[in-house]
Every structure is written in C-alpha cells, then in structure tokens.
Amino acid sequence: MSKVLNAKFFNEFIDMVDLCCSLGWNERNGGNMSYRIATEDIEAIKDEFTFEKPWTSIGVTVANLANEYFLVTGSGKYFRYTKAEPEKSVCIAQLDEKGENYRIVWGLVEGGRPTSEFPTHLLNHSVKFDITGGKHRLVMHVHPVNTIALTFVLPQNDKDFTREIWDMMPECAVVFPRGIGILPLMLTGSIDIAKATAEKFKEYDVVVWSMHGIFSSGENFRDVFGIIETVEKAAEILVKVISMGGKKVRPTAQEIIDVCEEYNLDINKSLL
Ligand code: 2HA
Ligand code: ZN
Hints:
There is one protein chain. Helices cover 40% and strands 16% of the residues. It is an alpha+beta fold. The chain folds into two domains: 1-116, Class II aldolase/adducin N-terminal domain (L-fuculose-1-phosphate Aldolase, 3-Layer(aba) Sandwich); 144-272, Class II aldolase/adducin N-terminal domain (L-fuculose-1-phosphate Aldolase), CATH 3.40.225. Strands 2-5-4-3-1-6-9-8-7 form a nine-stranded mixed beta sheet, with helices on both faces. Helix 5 (118-131) packs parallel to helix 9 (191-201). The relative contact order is 0.14. Bound molecules: Dihydroxyacetone and zinc ion. Zinc ion is lined by residues 30-31, 141, 143, 188, 212-213.
C-alpha cells in the first residue's frame, strides 16, 4: 500500500472531502480544500514523490510558505469521486524557494492542476501562517445552501452579516468570536478575489463570498469543519426565521458578550 494513501493526514483530508460532499456543500466540482503538510509527514512519504514536473507560476508570491508542500483538490475534479479515486482527484504540490511557483510531486495521475482557487488558498495560508505562528494548516472552501441564500437578502457588510448569524445561537459567538467577513460577488479563481479574501483573513477565520460560498481556515480538519457547520446551521435557522416572517426577539449585545466572557473569548466588539 502506498505510504501517501496510508498517511493519517491524507485520509483525514479525503474523508473531509467526502463528508462535505455528502452534506451537499460540494456539488460536482464545486469547492476546494488545501492542507499544508507537516515536515515529519513529508519525510515519511517523500520517496513516493517525483520531482520532474515543470514549475508553474502561482500568480501571487507567498515567501513565508517557500518550500512547503500542500495537499490540494484538483481543478474540475468532483468531490463525489475523490474517495474512490484519490490519485486522480487530488495532488501534493511543492512550492519553490521563493514561494512564486509550484510543481506537482504526487497525484493527479491522469493530468490536471490544483484548484482554480489555489492562489486564494495560498494567500490565506500565508496570512494565517504569520498570524498563528504556523498553527493553521487547513483552508476549506464550500458552497452551503443556507449561507449562500442569506447573501441574497442580508446587508453586505461584516458587522450586520456577523450579527445576524451570531444572533441565532449562543454557540456562534463562541465558535467564531472574531466574526465573519463578507465579500461581494467577485470573479472566482481571480487574483483579485485571492487578495480581497486574504485581507479579510487578517481579521477573520471565516469569510463568506456573496452569492458563492464560504472560505475558512484553521489548525485541523475538526476545527475548520466545526466553524463551517456552525455558520451553516445558524444560516439555516435564520432562513427559517425569515420565512416565518422575521425575528420578534433577539439577544442583546451584552448577552452575546456575556457568553464569550464566560469562556474567556475575545469577542470582536466592533461587530456588535
Ligand atoms: O468550482 O468552487 O470557487 C470550484 C469552485 C470555485
Ligand atoms: Zn466556489
């Protein structure tokens, strides 16, 4: 059995792709995921890599991620079939010593390239690498129904969007106390959306792309999935509340602050 296919991080990644797909978050080839692989994990699997593929420009420079390796979903590959055909669906990409180019060292055996959102993923990894001292390793992008639906009706600014979601369950402010960033509809896969998202990631761990989906970053699969499922559950409640005629009560700002203080969390008061 291949060491890559047997590696724990690899199986967690594939299982997460499969779970997101089964939740309806990743239709067809919608959404993408990337994971910065730990040095010791690379050492354990490196003899299965090939270093003959050409370097390709990333389109952005991520100097602090020079020489790092990423497990990433392939452009146009379906989440639905990733678990059955991992070697055809995902790849491990190595960055060069300047953080300007990548090359595929494993996977995508029938051809292909990393997700069209790879520049966004890498810029987000780069921002979070510095902010968290290298703790964040995973970036996930999904298309969950309720969160997307809300972007058609809620105000398009971080403060109002966050507060509407925070209002839905005390859990929300606890799980993402810094709040949610929101961006307008922008061209997917573009350098502009990569830069705009990375700007938001300086403040937030979760960013909503209006009329498109969610981007989130965290230390591991459990954390990132936990944030996204909490946002999406709150969004589902809000969709129902709006469908029933809208809110008649809501928590006060102080009630939201109190929950966070109970857990010693640094609630982003500028959003209240
Ligand atoms: O199709 O989700 O954002 C992949 C995407 C682009
Ligand atoms: Zn998308």
